[in-house]
Amino acid sequence: MSNRGRSVNCILPPHILNALLDSDDREIRRTAVATLTSTSRLRGERTARSIAAVAAPAGGRRTISDCHQSKVLAQATVERGEDDPAVADGSVNAAFDGLGTTRDFYAQVLQRNSIDGKGMRLNGYVHYGQAFNNAFWDSREMVFGDGDGRVFSDFTGALDVIAHELTHGVTEHTAGLDYHNQSGALNESISDVFGSVVKQWKLGQTAAQADWLIGEKIFTPGVEADALRSMKAPGTAYDTPLLGGKDPQPDRMSRFLNLPDTDEDDNGGVHINSGIPNKAFYLAATGIGGNSWGAPGVIWYEALKASSPDTDFQAFADTTFAKAGQLFGTGSPEQQAVFAAWQGVEIKISGASPLSVRLSASSNGTGAAAAASLPSRVDELAGQIKALTKEVNGLRKARA
Fold first, then answer.
1. What global pTM score does this model have?
2. For the chain, which terminal residue's Cβ has fewer other Cβ atoms within 10 angstroms, N or C?
3. Is 334 a catalytic residue?
4. Where is the Peptidase M4 domain (predicted)?
5. Cα–Cα distance measured from residue 1 to residue 308, given in angstroms and rounded to the nearest whole number
6. Secondary structure class of 201 (helix, strand, coil)
7. 3-state secondary structure labels for all residues of 338-376
8. 258-277 tens-digit pLDDT
9. Strand pairing category for 62-66 and 135-137
10. Would you state the pLDDT for residue 398?
């Protein structure tokens, strides 16, 4: 597995934190600097932390610890374990519940035993740093900042953020997608996909009912922003000078942003270009209909397991199409919806065309109902022709 697939993955992209550096509010600037500095340090440690990661089988048991505003995890105190009742600290309970919901989703829906598939223990740390504006997964644990209270609130309050970060762990233990350029954007998209799917599963929402927003609960009420990202409409999550202007996410390949592969530019824009595969999943889920954790989620999960560190958008699109055919039948409505979804973001499935997909559907029974009704349709047309012939003959006789 590539080391670049194992990194410190933060929910807030660099371009938002950098935008806060231009705020007129001195305190907002100060907390942005502190968060960026801490994030850079964490990324510098990612290789050592990943190598040291130990996934001892534990049935996905949870432990939540309190950092007491320190950034030294070793000094944190354990506040709640798997069999413990709720405590007075709301952040501890929210983190505990979020980890559990995500674990249960993967177990019950996708038959996956915790993050690594082998029962990996789930460790969460709350109250990390002072006014730390981020939440991250570092290959071993989930860490939450309290937010600055001016722009961001407590990061434990958003289930989709928790599921997003834990899904980075799932990706590490499956495809190991390299965290840069298209594979990195796909890595981020997979986390957004299952972050939203877990939230929908918890709420019992259909794909049509869901808001498809990521991180809508992490902003304070005074910030004019719907969320960090919108999967339904990438590029529309926010539009405010405080966050650097308009949401920069593209929704199709013709709007893909070619950015430098550096930490400062988000490793080639992994949090930005993820809007393209995000939109593809939204289109597939709503095209198939029903619950996103049904056919759409299973297709994406199986495609993730079949992917490799350097998988790009095209390769992943082809894999989802193939998996849809394997799971639900060649030319099935599910496969047709996946095909149409990628077309909707300007990615063509290799070796397939709309006509070939329709022909596959007909030849494999999807068109059975139409075929069964063909004799009656022929009889109906024959009757219409007979009536028209009789009418024409009558007109001829009248003229004679």
1. 0.86
2. C
3. no
4. 90-172
5. 8
6. helix
7. HHHHHHHCCCCCCCCCHHHHHHHHHHCCCCHHHHHCHHH
8. 999 998 899 999 999 999 99
9. unpaired
10. 58
Cβ–Cβ under 8 Å, residues 63 and 123: yes
Q: What is the pLDDT of residue 3?
A: 42
Contact 125, 145 (CB under 8 A): no
CA 165/CA 155 separation, integer angstroms: 11
Q: What is the DSSP string of 266-327?
A: HHHHTTTTTHHHHHHHHHHHHHH-S-TTTHHHHHHHHHHHT--TT--HHHHHHHHHHHHHHH
Whether 221 and 214 have beta carbons less than 8 Å apart is answered as no
Category of 119 on φ-ψ map: left (φ > 0), alpha (ψ -120 to 50) or beta? left
What is each CA distance from 358 to 157, 188, 353, 361, 372, in whole angstroms? 45, 32, 9, 5, 17
231: Cβ–Cβ under 8 A, 6 or more apart, which residues? Answer: 192, 193, 196, 212, 213, 214, 275, 278, 279, 281, 282
Closest CA to 244 of 11, 12, 15: 15
Residue 240: strand pairing partners: 245
Helix (H) or strand (E) holding 78: strand 77-81
DSSP per-residue letters across 124-181: EEES-TTT---EEE-SS-EEE----SSSB--GGG-HHHHHHHHHHHHHHTTT---SSH
Residue 117 three-state SS = coil
Q: Select which of 168, 271, 302, 334 is catalytic.
A: 271
Cβ 332 vs Cβ 361: under 8 Å: yes
More confident residue, 370 or 114: 114
Q: Are 163 and 101 in contact (CB under 8 A)?
A: yes
Q: Is 165 a catalytic residue?
A: yes
Longest dimension (CA), the chain: 108
